[in-house]
Design brief:
Oligomer: single chain
Mean pLDDT: 94
Strand order of the largest sheet: 1-3
Strand content: 5-15%
Largest sheet: 2 strands, antiparallel
Shape: globular
Number of strands: 6
Structural class: mainly alpha
């Protein structure tokens, strides 16, 4: 193990820029967006079923996850690894010359975004967690920090994102942008039950006019950076992920470890064929949102505009807000999919409509479990979830 502070050398602007790339590279780990953060939230819920041979996936499908499940450990370790990279660079940055004030602010803002993203994923998975805002600098004192309450974790997330707001110059959605900061703020405020703030920040993203829904739903998953992308993890032939391999059937060279559930496929109406055909191969029932099996170069959406429209709709409905405004946000997403306007007309009906829109729109993108836990619906809809203890992962 390396004592990051004492044994690593970072002394120039170029070193700092390379380490920033290293922070983003950590998002590509198996424990984050290369596999677990995309597959497991849908497998915990009712969007995916386990069809393969890796028994640990079965624990997620059955909601009987043991603390020694290597995937739980993988998620935990991957997030704290990125946190340590981020915190190390933040600690060393004041000593490094060569940055203009705006360049330094841009890097600091991006690092605060990444730190908030890691804490956001961890608090939703594990509840009370250790908050890490400094690098691990010795092997005795820093390796077993105490867990802190969920409210404290959310306060840290808000502090980091509010500090980052308006600092970032970058506009490339494969790195953090100001729009990504505001979108993550909207999602974090919704998760924490702060609905006014969630409406305000989702509106900031939507009203910025920086993003627009992709005209044709399946085009979202082609090898281009969509107009809808707010923040995505970029992959290439030389730096790929194995999602297609895990989704594709053996007849096409995949391992078919997981498959769309019958419950999900039945949730798509005949009229919702555009989204269904953009997400599922009806011939052999497998996910086609990540089509590049040979090259492994499927980009992963962390934040996209349709999600934020539905975040605003849910926050507005949760505070019993303007019904017409809620309907308009739902309809923007539905109309892109070729569907008529929603028939939901009360706040209760609209909450259920939003739940279903999120399920079909964001299938296989790692949202379903968090949606059901957030709205208190997981124990109602998932037969294998019979105790509140199952709503959080065990600490590895």
């Amino acid at each position: 193990p390396v004592n990051y502070i004492e044994e690593s050398t970072i002394s120039s602007k170029n070193d700092a820029e390379r380490l920033l790339i290293g922070c983003y590279d950590g998002l590509q780990s198996t424990g984050m967006y290369s596999r677990y953060m995309i597959i497991l939230p849908d497998l915990l819920a009712d969007n995916l079923t386990w069809e393969g041979t890796t028994l640990e996936y079965g624990q997620f499908e059955n909601n009987t996850i043991l603390a020694d499940n290597f995937m739980v450990e993988g998620m935990w370790n991957a997030h704290y690894d990125v946190l340590n990279r981020v915190n190390y660079l933040l600690a060393k940055l004041p000593e490094i010359d060569g940055f203009s004030p705006s360049e330094r602010d841009d890097m600091v803002g991006q690092l605060h975004f990444l730190r908030a993203l890691c804490h956001f994923n961890l608090v939703r998975l594990f509840g009370a967690i250790p908050i890490k805002t400094s690098p691990t600098s010795n092997l005795e004192g820093d390796l077993n920090p105490s867990r802190q309450a969920e409210d404290d974790v959310y306060e840290q997330i808000f502090d980091d994102l509010l500090a980052a707001e308006d600092m970032i110059m970058n506009t490339d959605p494969t790195f953090a942008t100001n729009g990504a900061v505001q979108a993550l703020l909207a999602k974090a405020y919704l998760s924490a039950g702060l609905y006014d703030e969630a409406v305000n920040y989702s509106s900031e993203v939507i009203n910025s006019m920086q993003y627009e829904l992709e005209a044709v739903f399946p085009d979202l998953y082609k090898q281009t950076i969509s107009t809808e992308a707010i923040f995505l993890v970029l992959y290439s032939e030389t730096d790929g992920n194995r999602l297609a391999e895990y989704f594709f059937p053996t007849s096409q060279g995949g391992r078919y470890e997981i498959a769309p559930s019958a419950d999900l496929t039945e949730a798509f109406s005949e009229q919702d064929s555009i989204r269904y055909q953009g997400a599922v191969s009806s011939d052999e029932n497998y996910c086609i949102k990540y089509p590049n099996l040979a090259t492994r170069s499927n980009n992963i959406y962390v934040l996209r505009l349709a999600d934020i429209y539905l975040v605003r709709a849910e926050a507005e409905a949760s505070r019993n807000g303007d019904i017409t405004a809620i309907q308009q946000d739902i309809n923007i997403v539905r109309n892109r999919a070729g569907l008529d306007d929603t028939e939901a007309g009360t706040h209760e009906e609209l909450m259920l409509a939003i739940e279903e829109e999120r399920r079909r729109e964001l299938a296989f993108e790692g949202h379903r479990w968090f949606d059901l836990v957030r709205t208190g619906r997981a124990m109602m809809l998932i037969e294998t979830v019979t105790s509140p203890n199952q709503l959080l992962m065990p600490i590895p």
